[in-house]
Amino acid sequence: MVDKTALVLGTATPGGGFPAYGWPYAEVLNEMDPTLGIQPINTKGSAENVPLLEQDKLDLGLVTGEVTYEAINGISQPKAVNLRIISATYSQAGMFMVRADSPYRAIADLKGKPIVWGAATSGFIVLARAAHHGEARVSQVHAHAGRELPGAVRAYPRGRIVAFRAGARDACG
Length: 173
Fold this sequence. Notes:
- This protein has helices at about 15-30, 45-55, 65-75, 125-135, 150-155, 170; strands at about 5-10, 35-40, 60, 95, 115-120, 140-145, 165.
- By secondary structure, it is α/β, with parallel strands linked by helices.
- It folds into 2 domains: about 5-75, D-Maltodextrin-Binding Protein, domain 2, CATH 3.40.190.10; about 95-170, 3-Layer(aba) Sandwich (D-Maltodextrin-Binding Protein, domain 2).
- It has a 4-stranded mixed beta sheet.
- Helix 3 (about 65-75) packs across helix 4 (about 125-135).
- The longest helix is centred in the first third of the chain and has 16 residues, at about 15-30.
- The N and C termini lie far apart (about 40 Å).
Protein backbone atom coordinates (compact mmCIF):
# COMPACT_ATOMS: atom_id res chain seq x y z
CA MET A 1 0.00 0.00 0.00
CA VAL A 2 1.31 3.45 -0.97
CA ASP A 3 1.51 6.16 1.68
CA LYS A 4 -0.64 9.10 0.62
CA THR A 5 0.03 12.76 1.22
CA ALA A 6 -3.24 14.12 2.62
CA LEU A 7 -4.14 17.58 1.32
CA VAL A 8 -7.28 19.61 1.99
CA LEU A 9 -8.62 21.66 -0.96
CA GLY A 10 -10.93 24.58 -0.13
CA THR A 11 -13.61 25.21 -2.77
CA ALA A 12 -16.66 27.42 -2.11
CA THR A 13 -20.37 27.29 -1.29
CA PRO A 14 -22.47 24.50 -2.82
CA GLY A 15 -24.02 25.41 -6.16
CA GLY A 16 -21.12 27.53 -7.40
CA GLY A 17 -18.34 26.88 -9.87
CA PHE A 18 -15.53 26.09 -7.42
CA PRO A 19 -17.18 22.98 -5.91
CA ALA A 20 -18.20 21.82 -9.39
CA TYR A 21 -14.58 22.19 -10.47
CA GLY A 22 -12.83 21.20 -7.22
CA TRP A 23 -14.36 17.77 -6.66
CA PRO A 24 -13.59 16.35 -10.13
CA TYR A 25 -10.19 18.08 -10.10
CA ALA A 26 -9.27 16.36 -6.84
CA GLU A 27 -10.64 13.05 -8.09
CA VAL A 28 -8.54 13.16 -11.25
CA LEU A 29 -5.37 14.21 -9.42
CA ASN A 30 -5.89 11.44 -6.87
CA GLU A 31 -6.31 8.89 -9.69
CA MET A 32 -3.27 10.17 -11.59
CA ASP A 33 -0.95 10.22 -8.58
CA PRO A 34 -1.46 7.38 -6.10
CA THR A 35 0.65 9.24 -3.51
CA LEU A 36 -1.93 12.06 -3.26
CA GLY A 37 -5.04 12.09 -1.10
CA ILE A 38 -6.67 15.43 -1.96
CA GLN A 39 -9.90 16.01 -0.03
CA PRO A 40 -12.06 18.89 -1.31
CA ILE A 41 -14.23 20.70 1.21
CA ASN A 42 -16.87 23.41 0.90
CA THR A 43 -15.87 26.82 2.24
CA LYS A 44 -17.37 30.27 1.93
CA GLY A 45 -15.28 30.82 -1.19
CA SER A 46 -12.28 32.87 -2.24
CA ALA A 47 -12.44 35.42 0.56
CA GLU A 48 -12.39 32.65 3.17
CA ASN A 49 -9.86 30.44 1.38
CA VAL A 50 -7.12 33.09 1.58
CA PRO A 51 -7.11 33.39 5.39
CA LEU A 52 -7.58 29.62 5.78
CA LEU A 53 -4.46 29.09 3.65
CA GLU A 54 -2.56 31.71 5.65
CA GLN A 55 -3.63 30.01 8.92
CA ASP A 56 -2.51 26.59 7.59
CA LYS A 57 -6.10 25.28 7.78
CA LEU A 58 -6.09 24.48 4.05
CA ASP A 59 -3.31 23.01 1.94
CA LEU A 60 -4.80 24.15 -1.37
CA GLY A 61 -7.49 26.71 -2.09
CA LEU A 62 -9.41 27.84 -5.13
CA VAL A 63 -9.27 31.63 -5.23
CA THR A 64 -10.31 34.10 -7.93
CA GLY A 65 -7.75 36.40 -9.49
CA GLU A 66 -9.32 39.52 -7.96
CA VAL A 67 -9.15 38.11 -4.43
CA THR A 68 -5.59 36.89 -5.00
CA TYR A 69 -4.53 40.32 -6.24
CA GLU A 70 -6.05 42.05 -3.20
CA ALA A 71 -4.52 39.49 -0.80
CA ILE A 72 -0.95 39.74 -2.07
CA ASN A 73 -1.17 43.54 -2.21
CA GLY A 74 -2.87 43.99 1.18
CA ILE A 75 -5.95 45.70 -0.26
CA SER A 76 -8.93 45.68 2.16
CA GLN A 77 -7.11 43.14 4.36
CA PRO A 78 -3.72 42.40 5.89
CA LYS A 79 -1.14 41.58 3.22
CA ALA A 80 -0.86 37.83 2.64
CA VAL A 81 2.72 36.77 3.22
CA ASN A 82 2.59 33.01 2.81
CA LEU A 83 0.71 32.35 -0.44
CA ARG A 84 1.92 30.98 -3.75
CA ILE A 85 0.02 30.53 -6.99
CA ILE A 86 0.76 27.05 -8.31
CA SER A 87 -1.72 26.81 -11.15
CA ALA A 88 -4.28 28.82 -13.05
CA THR A 89 -7.36 26.65 -13.30
CA TYR A 90 -9.91 27.93 -15.77
CA SER A 91 -11.06 31.12 -17.34
CA GLN A 92 -14.65 32.08 -16.77
CA ALA A 93 -17.05 34.17 -18.73
CA GLY A 94 -19.04 36.52 -16.57
CA MET A 95 -22.34 38.15 -17.37
CA PHE A 96 -25.27 39.99 -15.86
CA MET A 97 -28.47 38.03 -16.33
CA VAL A 98 -31.99 39.46 -16.39
CA ARG A 99 -35.35 37.99 -17.25
CA ALA A 100 -36.00 38.00 -21.00
CA ASP A 101 -39.23 39.96 -20.45
CA SER A 102 -37.49 42.68 -18.39
CA PRO A 103 -36.92 46.22 -19.70
CA TYR A 104 -33.15 46.02 -19.05
CA ARG A 105 -30.89 45.84 -22.11
CA ALA A 106 -27.56 47.27 -20.88
CA ILE A 107 -25.55 47.57 -17.66
CA ALA A 108 -26.46 51.27 -17.48
CA ASP A 109 -30.13 50.22 -17.24
CA LEU A 110 -29.34 48.58 -13.88
CA LYS A 111 -28.32 51.82 -12.14
CA GLY A 112 -30.10 52.07 -8.79
CA LYS A 113 -31.64 48.59 -9.14
CA PRO A 114 -31.05 45.68 -6.75
CA ILE A 115 -28.69 43.13 -8.27
CA VAL A 116 -26.84 40.17 -6.77
CA TRP A 117 -23.12 39.75 -7.42
CA GLY A 118 -22.81 36.30 -5.80
CA ALA A 119 -22.16 34.77 -2.43
CA ALA A 120 -20.95 37.27 0.17
CA THR A 121 -17.47 35.72 0.29
CA SER A 122 -17.09 35.03 -3.43
CA GLY A 123 -14.61 36.68 -5.74
CA PHE A 124 -17.53 38.39 -7.47
CA ILE A 125 -17.87 40.74 -4.48
CA VAL A 126 -14.27 41.85 -5.00
CA LEU A 127 -15.12 42.35 -8.66
CA ALA A 128 -18.12 44.46 -7.60
CA ARG A 129 -15.85 46.66 -5.49
CA ALA A 130 -13.51 47.08 -8.46
CA ALA A 131 -16.43 47.97 -10.73
CA HIS A 132 -17.67 50.56 -8.26
CA HIS A 133 -14.32 52.19 -7.55
CA GLY A 134 -12.32 51.55 -10.70
CA GLU A 135 -12.08 53.62 -13.84
CA ALA A 136 -14.78 51.57 -15.59
CA ARG A 137 -17.20 52.47 -12.80
CA VAL A 138 -20.95 52.04 -13.16
CA SER A 139 -21.73 54.61 -10.52
CA GLN A 140 -25.03 53.67 -8.92
CA VAL A 141 -25.42 49.94 -9.36
CA HIS A 142 -26.08 48.47 -5.92
CA ALA A 143 -24.09 45.35 -5.05
CA HIS A 144 -26.22 43.08 -2.89
CA ALA A 145 -24.15 40.24 -1.51
CA GLY A 146 -26.19 37.06 -1.25
CA ARG A 147 -25.26 34.47 1.37
CA GLU A 148 -25.26 31.68 -1.21
CA LEU A 149 -25.86 31.85 -4.93
CA PRO A 150 -28.79 29.38 -4.89
CA GLY A 151 -30.69 31.69 -2.52
CA ALA A 152 -30.00 34.63 -4.80
CA VAL A 153 -31.23 32.71 -7.81
CA ARG A 154 -34.40 31.67 -5.95
CA ALA A 155 -35.05 35.32 -5.07
CA TYR A 156 -34.67 36.43 -8.68
CA PRO A 157 -37.95 35.18 -10.19
CA ARG A 158 -39.94 36.55 -7.24
CA GLY A 159 -38.94 40.10 -8.15
CA ARG A 160 -36.70 40.82 -5.17
CA ILE A 161 -33.74 41.50 -7.46
CA VAL A 162 -33.70 42.53 -11.10
CA ALA A 163 -30.40 40.91 -12.16
CA PHE A 164 -27.54 38.83 -10.96
CA ARG A 165 -23.92 38.62 -11.96
CA ALA A 166 -23.13 35.04 -12.88
CA GLY A 167 -20.24 32.96 -14.07
CA ALA A 168 -20.62 30.48 -16.89
CA ARG A 169 -21.59 27.57 -14.62
CA ASP A 170 -24.17 29.68 -12.78
CA ALA A 171 -25.76 30.73 -16.04
CA CYS A 172 -25.70 27.35 -17.72
CA GLY A 173 -26.54 25.26 -14.71
